[in-house]
């Protein structure tokens, strides 16, 4: 039997429902956290949970990393006190240089600093519209690019859910689906070409791996096809690396897999290891436009930039990009073996430590099993892990990049057992009832 999940300390945190707005997204199970260390989170009351959702906890480096603490202390001990004057202190300038070094591109380029993936994408889109003089934004169906402004309106998942009104200037085109509809790939490319044909599209946003839409890895070469079509149409290609980029796919950038050079690249989440910071890297002629010059007061602030520099330096020093590749191979292989006998596991896919487990009603029909996904994440939490689902039925397994082999093996056990026991009816309707519907 797993330990009793709900402690008096956790009860205290459930008060969030009465005082914090918009928390329903995280209601997969009654999560209440106290601290974290490495790949582990500590639940209120002291139970340890393996973090298999570091794209949500935004911490590729692992929790409580000394490099983050030191960077924050250094910045706090002698703060240059620069808010909107983001480029007047060393950490902002050095971080911009680091990001330019890290990101392929040519010519005169700039780095825009924001607070969240959402505002980096928002600025990228508005700058592209301004620079090209074209009115239209193109994005993929089931995409996620942000929760504010035009980035939200260019997010297929938000538009589908009705959380934002459709914008007349935003269009959507299908993303490939190698698991459920491989035969439609040519049609996906044809529709993309058609969407770009009018010459009115300022930019196309793409997630190199569709994440919130269901951890879909497109066919090899897809991004090269996309880049070629954008280039022919005079449309700027914006690669959104916010969730699965920055080392997680086993390369610094997810788009490297197809060897492309996007016009604009956006970063967020794990760049700040929990401290708010995001960035858009792109041509000076685009990012120096007025859309990006409306600086947010604390963008590029000394604390966030100090931490982001430390994150990049630590990733290099600890070889975390290579680690993500190796650990990811072990994780996918382990999951495939451990779930081979489970007919409800239709597909285990991913790249590096961005892994999706597609739950189905049976392997033959590949029908999505959202009810099982809700029960499985609940059961995994009861057993001692934190994992969420995306696209309705896909467990998104994205541990911190520092995960050890032994922890990968534990993750495999937890997930296989959690899925099996959820399928066997160990999670009751009453348990998951409050958490339905993501
Ligand atoms: N882009 C992608 C691909 C994302 O997954 C997200 C967040 N889920 C965002 C952008 C927005 O990032 P943030 O929540 O930091 O604004």
TrEMBL record:
GO molecular function terms listed in the Swiss-Prot or TrEMBL record: transaminase activity
SUPFAM superfamilies: PLP-dependent transferases (SSF53383)
Statement: the UniProt record of this protein carries the keyword Transferase: yes
Record bears the keyword tRNA-binding: no
TM spans (from-to): none
Pfam families reported in the protein's UniProt record: Aminotran_3 (PF00202)
The entry's keywords: Aminotransferase, Pyridoxal phosphate, Transferase
Domain of life from the UniProt record: Bacteria
Family statement drawn from the similarity comment of this UniProt entry: Belongs to the class-III pyridoxal-phosphate-dependent aminotransferase family.
Entry protein name: Aspartate aminotransferase family protein
Biological source species: Blastococcus deserti
């Amino acid at each position: 039997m797993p330990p009793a999940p709900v402690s008096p300390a956790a009860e205290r945190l459930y008060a969030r429902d009465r005082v914090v707005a918009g928390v329903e997204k995280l209601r997969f199970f009654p999560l209440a956290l106290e601290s974290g260390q490495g790949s582990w989170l500590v639940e209120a009351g002291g139970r340890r949970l393996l973090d298999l959702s570091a794209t949500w906890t935004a911490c590729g480096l692992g929790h409580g990393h000394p490099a983050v603490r030191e960077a924050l202390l250094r910045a706090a001990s002698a703060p240059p006190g620069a808010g909107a004057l983001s480029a007047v202190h060393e950490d902002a300038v050095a971080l911009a240089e680091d990001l330019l070094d890290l990101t392929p591109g040519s010519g005169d380029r700039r780095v825009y600093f924001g607070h969240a993936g959402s505002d980096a994408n928002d600025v990228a889109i508005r700058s592209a519209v301004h620079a090209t003089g074209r009115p239209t934004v193109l994005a993929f169906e089931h995409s996620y690019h942000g929760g504010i402004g035009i980035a939200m309106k260019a997010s297929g998942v938000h538009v589908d859910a009705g959380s934002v009104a459709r914008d007349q200037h935003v269009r959507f085109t299908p993303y490939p689906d190698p698991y459920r509809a491989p035969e439609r790939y040519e049609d996906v490319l044809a529709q993309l070409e058609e969407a770009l044909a009018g010459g009115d599209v300022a930019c196309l946003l793409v997630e190199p791996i569709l994440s919130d839409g269901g951890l879909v890895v497109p066919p090899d070469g897809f991004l090269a096809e996309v880049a070629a079509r954008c280039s022919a149409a005079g449309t700027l290609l914006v690669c959104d690396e916010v969730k699965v980029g920055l080392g997680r796919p086993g390369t610094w950038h997810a788009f490297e897999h197809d060897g492309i050079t996007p016009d604009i690249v956006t970063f967020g989440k794990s760049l700040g290891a929990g401290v708010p910071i995001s960035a858009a890297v792109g041509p000076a002629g685009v990012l120096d436009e007025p859309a990006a010059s409306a600086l947010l007061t604390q963008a590029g602030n000394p604390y966030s930039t100090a931490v982001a520099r430390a994150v990049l330096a630590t990733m290099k020093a600890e070889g975390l990009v290579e680690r993500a590749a190796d650990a990811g191979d072990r994780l996918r292989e382990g999951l495939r073996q451990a779930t081979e006998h489970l007919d409800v596991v239709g597909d285990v896919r991913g790249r590096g430590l961005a892994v999706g487990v597609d739950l189905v009603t049976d392997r033959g029909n590949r029908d999505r099993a959202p009810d099982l996904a809700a029960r499985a994440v609940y059961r995994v939490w009861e057993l001692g892990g934190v994992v969420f689902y995306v696209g309705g039925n896909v467990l998104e397994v994205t541990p911190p990049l520092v995960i050890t082999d032994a922890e990968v093996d534990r993750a495999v056990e937890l997930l296989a057992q959690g899925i099996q026991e959820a399928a066997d009816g160990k999670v009751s309707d009453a348990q998951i009832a409050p958490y339905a519907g993501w």
